[in-house]
Amino acid sequence: MNGAFPARVQAAGWGWRYAGRKRPATSDVSFTIEPGERVLLLGASGAGKSTLLAGLAGVLGDADEGERTGSLLVDGAAPESRHGQSGLVMQDPESGIVLSKVGDDVAFGCENLGVPASEIPTRVAEALDAVGLDVPLQRPTKALSGGQKQRLVLAGALAMQPGLLLLDEPTANLDPEGVAEVRASVERAVDATGATLVVVEHRTPVWVGMMTRVIVLAADGGLLADGAPAQVFAEHGRALADAGVWVPGVDVDLAQLPASPSDAEPVLTASGLAIARDPRTTVQAGLEVMVPRGQATVITGANGVGKSTLALTLAGLIAEQAGTVESASSLAGKRGTRPFRWTSRELLTRIGTVFQEPEHQFLTQTLRDELAIGPKALGWSASRTQAVVDGLLDRLHLSSLARANPFTLSGGQKRRLSVATVLAASPEVIVLDEPTFGQDRRGWVELVALLQEEIIGGTSIVAVTHDDGVIRHLGGHRIALEAQAVRA
Question: What's the angle, vertex CA 472, arms to CA 359 and CA 308, rounded to 5?
């Protein structure tokens, strides 16, 4: 695995402001990254980490998309002229998938770079093996789980053997085994190619051991810290934690809720439940499920075992293949106790769902309008709606972005907004898929504390998660799924 020559990166007073936004995504950033350096890029949610990676990859767009200041160079040239030199894995894996079959998608970048056709199959196989994605090459990309899609886009980047590898939250939706596999595969790739590596990741302890440098972006522009990892964390650890950075060894100051009592009343139940998104393949069968009222239920398991599918089935958004999800009689709609038969308005106040991909539930042009959708649909007064919207914007540190387009937010901000849109309608049950994805330390604490308040107030929470901190702090009940090979 030879790869391109390691890239040299230079930023001098660089910044970017999205069109229509008063505040720049990032500004006044200056540094030089020498060829072969391994950099962990940190900063609070919204500090501009993803924007900087997109700038280095040359995919930010032209003047219609936004306004740039200063200069950003890859090997002395504008990143837009160096597309073959950079491999970018974006925060949202959906945005990095181009073709409908797994093998074709991994090969796509190689084909665009003019890699000899005889060499591409070997590169594809090696890249898929490196990230631990053991699925047929003809598997439809749309049939992959969120974590599998993350591995897929990383495999596509590794197959190109770039001189500059840019990774934006590459392990965010992966199970612990997947996190270890991806981290190891990235290290093997940069060891073999000598590529310059820049990683944006909130799981700081996972990556810090292989990094030669840590660069921390300040929320108001410029750099908060820059240096060797041990030096940065020793000299600035407390300040970085206060600014929202996950610092190794610094715990969060947040109480843990107790486990659910064994005699808790169920709000949702199912017996002999079989679930699937593709009618031809059942991912789980024979499930006995109970969601206790006013408690947290966490759904855990490896990528691809059906966690998200189970969550969507419990939420009434996917029909059961066998068995029936039933609600408590006090939660029943006009069509009975089966959530899948309820109308969208009945679901709105009974079971709210936060999808794994936040963009899938955004409908309007501003955060304020997005948060008002539920209250308006329920016929709330303008004053009540405004009070709820203002309260959520303030609590989740989104007030300054109230008039921004939801699609221009950072990944962590999008996640907080998606949670807030569901909370705005005050449903009795909330189903969340990876609720803490992309969160900095401060955002994580606020989000988990908000979920704790909902539970204490009587709301039933169902959370799909790989986050041990969520499991510890929400307490409650646990549904651990294991892989099954069940065909319909």
Answer: 35
